[in-house]
Design goal:
With about 325 residues, the protein is α/β, with parallel strands linked by helices. It has two domains: about 1-45 and about 160-305, Rossmann fold (3-Layer(aba) Sandwich); about 50-155, 3-Layer(aba) Sandwich (Rossmann fold). The chain is built from 13 helices and ten strands. The strands form two sheets. It has a six-stranded mixed β-sheet. Strands 5-4-3-6 form a four-stranded parallel β-sheet. Helix 5 (about 110-115) links the parallel strand 4 (about 95-100) and strand 5 (about 120-125). Helix 10 packs across helix 11 (about 210-220). The protein is globular. The structure holds pyridoxal-5'-phosphate. Pyridoxal-5'-phosphate (PLP) binds near residues 48, 155, 180 and 298.
Length: about 325
């Protein structure tokens, strides 16, 4: 029974994540080759980077005989959504500790979580800030019993091991690999699998993202990755902070979607693509470079009706 669960997780069948060339007139003349790795397509609910972050945590939980998983997130969290789905698929009970007050009716993210069997508990924003303290975690264990606790966003050493696998699916040679960063867990995994002539460039989706560089260094040393210098996190495209955006970013999304026929959202992937396009224009990348941008998913929490307006994009 136990071994069955572990092998179900290890052998979980994902859809293909094709590598597509972005043939956008805005960047064609730059001489840069831009590809997108469609990790958003690997599964309807466990899409993007969140599956890779969960994979070895789920295996670890199963190996340690836990039947119950608990984690933290905001009301639109892609991590909470994926965790609920994974719990349902592989047979774990799941609990989500949600930042802020309950709002009814539940938004689509939390409704999906509940429909997949997740139990939700709400805590105040000030409580939520303590979520990594040992005192707080002790209380969680007292209240919820024998649960396997995953940190917010699922970022830990096992997540780093999982996200390294995103790179093994990429077979074309490239110079840069780009992705949006929230906690830095995903880029740490990518960095761990790079060779010396490849460079990882993350885009902070938060204001004041300098801490991300420390996070990444911390994840890399925890994962015992030998010191690497071929990476950086750009801090210039946060658009005011986490989950903040403006009409320029929405216009960019409208244009990107109609030109490339690929959906992106304003919290993560659009900030990265805006940054990549802008840096291409500013000649940040070496001429002739090949860039791979990872579509990390995140479309579940996005209400795309805000895009139903004319496209006025101007660079
Ligand atoms: C969670 C998430 C990220 C950020 O991943 P980190 O490992 O926290 O840096 C990026 N993109 C999407 C769509 C996400 O859901």
């Amino acid at each position: 029974m136990l071994n069955q669960k572990i092998s179900d997780i290890k052998n979980f069948k994902l859809e293909d994540a094709p590598l597509q060339k972005i043939d956008d007139p805005l960047i064609l003349s730059s001489g840069i080759n831009l590809y997108i790795k469609r990790e958003d397509l690997i599964h309807p609910a466990l899409s993007g980077n969140k599956w890779y972050k969960l994979k070895y945590n789920l295996i670890d939980a199963a190996e340690k005989n836990f039947n119950s998983l608990l984690s933290f997130g905001g009301a639109f969290s892609n991590h909470i959504y994926a965790l609920a789905s994974a719990g349902k698929i592989f047979g774990f009970k799941t609990t989500g500790i949600i930042r802020g007050e309950e709002h009814l009716p539940l938004n689509p993210t939390l409704k999906f979580a509940v429909n997949n069997g997740m139990e939700l508990h709400y805590i105040s924003r000030s409580e939520y800030r303590k979520k990594n303290d040992s005192e707080f975690l002790k209380k969680i264990n007292e209240k919820f019993g024998d649960v396997y606790v995953l940190p917010e966003g699922g970022s830990n050493t096992l997540a780093v091991k999982g996200t390294a696998e995103i790179l093994s699916g990429i077979t074309v040679p490239f110079d840069y690999i780009c992705l949006p960063c929230g906690t830095g867990g995903t880029i740490a995994g990518i960095i761990s699998a790079l060779n010396e002539i490849q460079f990882a460039l993350g885009f902070s989706v938060l204001k004041g993202g300098t801490f991300l560089k420390d996070n990444v260094s911390h994840f890399l040393s925890e994962a015992e990755v030998k010191r690497k210098i071929n990476w950086d996190i750009n801090l210039d495209y946060h658009f005011g902070g986490y989950a903040k955006y403006n009409s320029q970013l929405l216009d960019f999304i409208r244009r990107f979607e109609s030109t490339n026929n690929i959906q992106i959202e304003p919290i993560y992937t659009a900030k990265m693509f805006y940054g990549i396009y802008d840096l291409i224009h500013k000649k940040y990348f070496k001429p002739g470079s090949t860039i791979i941008a990872i579509h990390t998913g995140g479309l579940q929490g996005f209400n795309s009706s805000i895009l139903l307006k004319p496209n006025r994009f101007r660079w």
